[in-house]
Amino acid sequence: NYRKIASTGLNAAIREARGEIIVRMDAHTEYAADYIACCIATLERVGADNVGGPARTFANSYFQKANSLAYHSPFSVGGAKFHDTNYEGYVDTVTYGCWHKSTLEKLGLFDEDLVRNQDDELNLRLVRAGGTIWQSPSIRSWYYPRSSIGPLFKQYMQYGYWKVRVIQKHRLPASIRHLVPGLFLALLLALGVMSSFVYWGRVLFSLLCLLYGLANVGSSVIVCLWNKKWKYIPILPVIFAAYHFGYGSGFLLGVLDFFILNKRA
Description:
The chain has helices at residues 6-16, 35-46, 62-71, 74-77, 101-107, 118-128, 149-170, 180-194, 199-227, 236-260; strands at 21-23, 29-31, 50-52, 56-57, 89-90, 98-100, 133-135, 141-143. The protein contains 10 helices and 8 strands. The chain is globular, with a radius of gyration of 20 Å. It has a 3-stranded mixed β-sheet, with no helix packed on it. It is mainly alpha-helical.
């Protein structure tokens, strides 16, 4: 893997593979003993172009367990179907993936310009080419979420940054949920600047902060109530903020680089 990023490593492996089916299995994850068998069975049963399981999590530390709760909450991830461990059906993207090798070759493999989001971008190309993606809960894997606030913020900052490159490439976002954190942070920064000059700027800035704080704390309480895990209330608002502000700041930096400075790779 000459560039030491996921997309180039995946493509090198796919080119070397001799089998008819490719199954992607990432690090930071444990897999059920029948993972590959269920992938292949689902691929043949459904006839979709890509299949995979929902994004289950496995955690050890207090922070990891709280992060796992946030990971499955619509407040942090915008209701993406692959975070719903019980959902079976067609989706716009799926965890990891299983394809016929010929499908990947027709798509042109993973985009090697992308350090992150290469899986979402490939699935976007697949769907826009008329293909289908299927999620099945029978395909079981458990992802280890980040175990501290710094790596979590950095992870979602990278997701936000490279999502802009995907939008630049395709000239259209795959979903409105990809835009919300960046738009929210841009509005917050604009009102913050305006608050130094005009009274109504201070009022709107304070109101937006209050509304976000209420939504954050309220969502934290709902998550803990639903899962009966009250001890994570103190840390959940911080974790939700890391998701939102990490992704939002990366997105705005990506807008600067890819749209204003017109970078291509």
